[in-house]
């Protein structure tokens, strides 16, 4: 036995120090009692049976009992959608793949595109939308109700009725909606449209207007001149005589009493049997109570209607009983460019009217050129007939016309002047329909706008003799018309003065006519307006401003 002491192991917690080449780690060793307790617990815990099939692949019995249960099925669908929209990526970041898995390839653009969440969401939405759309169409195809079939049959019958109603000559018109086969304007009654066009006329009279009651067979050129005129049962023969002297287009209003159907049939028969009528005359029927001129549908309204329905760009307003004695169509054709430029600028062409002193006139007595007319004037058989003036007097200026070889402008205009004029259908103002029969009102509005009146030097009109009973306007009506026209004169002066001032044309040559005609009128109107002061919130006067008054009296 040696003297060296005996070393016994100690059962206490100690720390072993493991040294490696790279680093040093301090690990705490568990005590012996702790290890023994862990071994005993592992022996007591029963081990589960080890099967060949892993938990990720359950048996058939498991699938049939759990997979088809409602909550589990919905959850599985949700998991599938979530996994589709959020595809699982690698657990390590891409920068660590090289060390952990021995290196990897750089991801392509296509893989990034496929793995995009937005792209997968759009694809899923498209698939769901396509499925529902297919189901919807399939449902409608197989389960359509009988009412749809009835509607289809009804539409076919309606189309067949329309085919029977419209012949092959029917011309389709522009509509407001390309999907509709009708225009909304067609839903308005004829009376409503006519009463709006002629607001100062009686409704029952306006609704009985029949445009193009009898239509001419010839189609005129747009640059021709159409005569617009009116006729009654008493002046029907005058219209027939007019077609002998004028072979161009005519737009005529025939005024017939509302209850006189026999006269309607008589005129229709004569129209169809007279070549000069059915070739060139568009006849528009005015079925109006009474056979005489009436305020229910005045003559000026008839003029506007005939002008509206004329088929050419230029018109000539002709009163009944007046005929073109010369070859006016030839004159217009030979000077077409010059005349077109004047009419398109707003000017009008005037033709002087001459009448016979004797009532016994034959066709041979009518002069056909200027030289014959001058000879008859020298014999005192014919006179210049400017309405409202004495014989051979008036703004036409007979002496100047007899010596004229070219167009000349009217210099002595007066607001009662009403010669036969040729004008543009679209540019000129419409005739005021407050008058029974006043062509002067039509010309006056145009003159105040600054338009010139040019007198043709070689052509003229002839007023044929009329019987004493042919006068349509009574003396009482003449008094009323003159008083209305005096107020109309004032009104038109103010209106056109304001219009020129608003257009900035007051200091231009276009204001010369209104300055010469209306200076005193506007000054008188202005005196009554300048000192009026009213509360602008309750009442305003919009007739003319102080500025316009000052300009007009300069």
Structure report:
The protein has 554 residues and is an alpha/beta fold. The protein folds into three domains: 111-174; 187-473, Spore Coat Polysaccharide Biosynthesis Protein SpsA, Chain A, CATH 3.90.550; 487-552, no CATH class. It has 21 helices and 15 strands. It has a nine-stranded mixed sheet, sandwiched between helices. Strand 4 (225-232), helix 10 and strand 5 form a beta-alpha-beta unit. The longest helix is centred in the C-terminal third of the chain and has 28 residues, at 475-502. It comes from Parasitella parasitica.
Total strands: the figure is 15
- The number of domains: 3
How many strands, which pairing sense, and closed or not: the largest β-sheet? 9 strands, mixed
Number of helices: 21
Structural class by SSE content = alpha/beta
How far apart are the termini? 157 Å
Strand order within the widest beta sheet = 3-6-5-4-7-13-9-14-12
Classify the fold: give the CATH topology of the largest domain.
Answer: Spore Coat Polysaccharide Biosynthesis Protein SpsA, Chain A
User: Could you list the spans in which at least 5 consecutive residues all have pLDDT below 50?
Assistant: 1-32, 48-68, 527-554
Question: Fraction of residues in helices?
Answer: 40-55%
């Amino acid at each position: 036995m040696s003297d060296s002491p005996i070393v016994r192991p100690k059962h206490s917690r100690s720390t072993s120090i493991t040294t490696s080449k790279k680093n040093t780690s301090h690990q705490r060793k568990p005590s012996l009692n702790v290890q023994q307790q862990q071994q005993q617990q592992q022996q007591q815990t029963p081990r589960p049976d080890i099967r060949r099939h892993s938990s990720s692949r359950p048996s058939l019995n498991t699938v049939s009992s759990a997979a088809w249960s409602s909550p589990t099925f919905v959850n599985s669908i949700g998991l599938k959608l979530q996994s589709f929209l959020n595809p699982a990526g690698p657990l390590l970041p891409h920068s660590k793949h090289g060390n952990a898995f021995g290196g990897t390839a750089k991801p392509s653009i296509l893989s990034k595109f496929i793995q995009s969440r937005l792209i997968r969401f759009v694809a899923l939405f498209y698939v769901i939308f396509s499925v529902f759309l297919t189901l919807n169409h399939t449902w409608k195809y197989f389960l359509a109700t009988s009412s749809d079939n009835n509607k289809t049959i009804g539409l076919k019958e309606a189309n067949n009725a329309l085919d029977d109603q419209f012949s092959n000559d029917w011309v389709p018109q522009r509509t407001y909606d390309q999907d509709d086969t009708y225009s909304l304007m067609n839903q308005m009654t004829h009376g409503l449209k006519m009463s709006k066009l002629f607001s100062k006329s009686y409704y029952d009279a306006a609704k009985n207007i029949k445009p193009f009651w009898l239509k001419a067979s010839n189609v005129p050129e747009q640059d021709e001149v159409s005569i617009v005129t009116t006729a009654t049962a008493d002046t029907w023969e005058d219209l027939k005589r007019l077609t002998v002297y004028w072979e161009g287009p005519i737009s005529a209003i025939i005024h017939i009493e509302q209850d006189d159907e026999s006269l309607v049939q008589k005129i229709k028969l004569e129209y169809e049997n007279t070549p000069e009528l059915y070739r060139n005359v568009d006849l528009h029927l005015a079925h109006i109570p009474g056979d005489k001129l009436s305020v229910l549908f005045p003559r000026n309204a008839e003029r506007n209607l005939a002008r509206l329905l004329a088929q050419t760009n230029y018109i000539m307003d002709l009163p009944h009983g007046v005929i073109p004695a010369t070859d006016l169509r030839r004159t217009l054709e030979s000077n077409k460019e010059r005349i077109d430029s004047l009419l398109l600028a707003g000017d009008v062409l005037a033709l002087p009217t001459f009448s016979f002193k004797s009532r016994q006139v034959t066709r041979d007595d009518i002069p056909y050129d200027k030289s014959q007319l001058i000879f008859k004037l020298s014999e005192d058989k014919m006179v210049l007939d400017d309405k409202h003036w004495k014989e051979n007097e008036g703004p036409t200026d007979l002496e100047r016309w007899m010596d004229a070889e070219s167009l000349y402008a009217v210099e002595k205009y007066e607001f009662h002047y009403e010669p036969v004029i040729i004008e543009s259908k679209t540019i000129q103002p419409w005739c005021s329909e407050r008058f029974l029969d006043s062509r002067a009102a039509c010309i006056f509005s145009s003159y105040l706008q600054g338009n010139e009146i040019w007198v043709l030097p070689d052509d003229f009109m002839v007023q044929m003799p009329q019987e004493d009973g042919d006068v349509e306007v009574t003396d009482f009506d003449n008094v009323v018309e003159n008083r209305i026209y005096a107020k109309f004169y004032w009104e038109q002066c103010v209106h056109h003065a304001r219009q020129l001032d608003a257009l900035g044309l007051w200091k231009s040559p276009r204001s010369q006519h209104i300055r010469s005609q209306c200076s005193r009128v506007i000054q008188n109107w202005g005196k009554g307006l300048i000192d009026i002061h009213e509360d602008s919130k309750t009442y305003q006067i919009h007739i003319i401003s102080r500025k316009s008054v000052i300009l007009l009296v300069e």
